[in-house]
Amino acid sequence: MTDQDTRAGTMNGAESLVRTLLASGVDTCFSNPGTSEMHFVAALDHVPGMRSVLALFEGVATGAADGYFRMARKPACTLLHLGPGLANGLANLHNAKKAGSGIVNIVGEHAASHIELDAPLTADIAGIAAPMSHWVHTSESAADVGGDGARAVQAAMTPPGRIATLILPSDTAWNEDGVVAAPVPAPGRAPFDQKAVGKAVAALDGADSLLLLGGAALTEENLQTAGRIAAATGCGLLSEWSNARLERGAGRVFIGKVPYPIDQAVAALEGFRRIVLVGARAPIGFFAYPGKPAVLTRDRAEIIALAGAGDDLTGALDALADGTGARSVAPSGLAAPQDTARPNGAITPETIAAVLARSIPENAIVVDESVTTGRTFLPATAGAAPHSWLNNCGGSIGFGLPVAVGAATACPDRKVLALIGDGSAMYTLQAIWTMAREQQDVTMVIFANRSYAILRGELTNVGVQNPGPRAVDMLSLNRPDLGWIEMARGMGVEGQRVEDAAALEEAILAGLDVDGPYLIEAMM
């Protein structure tokens, strides 16, 4: 870039934004543009370096940006069309926000002179963005766009990762007053609570104490430190129920999770009188249930919040290791390689887990939106080949396929294995088309139980006994059955339908051997 490139009047606002994003390290855009974003689209031709990945639904674009951040550790941008386009992407922005993923949303807006006319697509974009964003700003002129873009990246890079939404009126994109802005440094991770270290060290003493981890505390290196602390103190070691990214497999410290079902979670936490939080929140239930607790820890449990999700989690764990004398102790909980027998018979959660233990390839990325089917997958796959495991942290379904797109975009040299319930997959099945277009190395396993199985269980959990046929029908995905192989083939992806565990293993291995996307419909 020359000095002349940075002077006002040499480019339009859209081009200045693309150049600024690239200068700030944002080189990937998941897009679903419309008329108001056409100057940004045109700028992609004029400015080399920005990869644009087209999505056929905005929820795929936002979910892909979430998966990208989890694996690349830097933000991508999305390109969305006005208020309705942003609204279509909100559910996966919610999931990304809960996961601590950094995303820069570029949302087109009408020109200032057109807003007062109340055209059909006019909407309160800032109001729509606010609940799912940490930072929202509207550019006022082409000269402002570059600087606004740099600040948006800064906001997105604020630890642990934040959602930044920049609203770009079309006249600020087309006017020829653009200025490229220099990157704005993002703040580093905040210090952990130094005053709580002594209390936390004293609390981690014996089997009735727990070290509860979340966020960036779940890297391979930080889990090694946590395993040393557990070995030195005898404390328990758990993670939150949902984790943005967990490094696991043979040779790594295995960490269990707080269970999702309320009764199981209460039972799992009942024995812990003292709990130290590093990157995690104190455990609570996903929902309120009649006659059941929302706070999952025992009465009068001592909760010590040493470090929040945006804090220096490595430093916090190092301080605990120093305080407990764990530095020279071998870590406990190292997962040994498993020699799991090949399963036979019907496809069940147990046989699926055994298949996964045998078939997860080394350095794979597993995207897990198996919801009910996958609740026992982690213990059974503890000794699988080393891999990364991504969960849905926000609870809004339709997360898995888009996140797989983003993970594959960030890590094209790694196999991606997406484990998705059929009900969840229907929310964002357009992601399959993007996988085919980009020839991404994603093997999808769709668990076809033909129902919203999680809601069948929740019907009982909220106190509904003996539900009638109308209630059950509302939670069923038959009449007609979904044809996943036919739908995938219509979007350019081949696959196969399997009906037993042995065939499932063969299909997964075949899919992983394909250079490109592959879909398996596992009939349950």
From TrEMBL:
The keyword Transferase applies. InterPro entries: THDP-binding, Thiamin_PyroP_enz_TPP-bd_dom, TPP-bd_CS, TPP_enz, TPP_enzyme_TPP-bd. Residues 385-521 form the Thiamine pyrophosphate enzyme TPP-binding domain. It comes from the Bacteria. SUPFAM superfamilies: Thiamin diphosphate-binding fold (THDP-binding) (SSF52518). Pfam families: TPP_enzyme_C, TPP_enzyme_N. Keywords: Thiamine pyrophosphate, Transferase. Residues 11-116 form the Thiamine pyrophosphate enzyme N-terminal TPP-binding domain. CDD domains: TPP_BFDC, TPP_PYR_POX_like. Belongs to the TPP enzyme family. This is Acetolactate synthase large subunit.
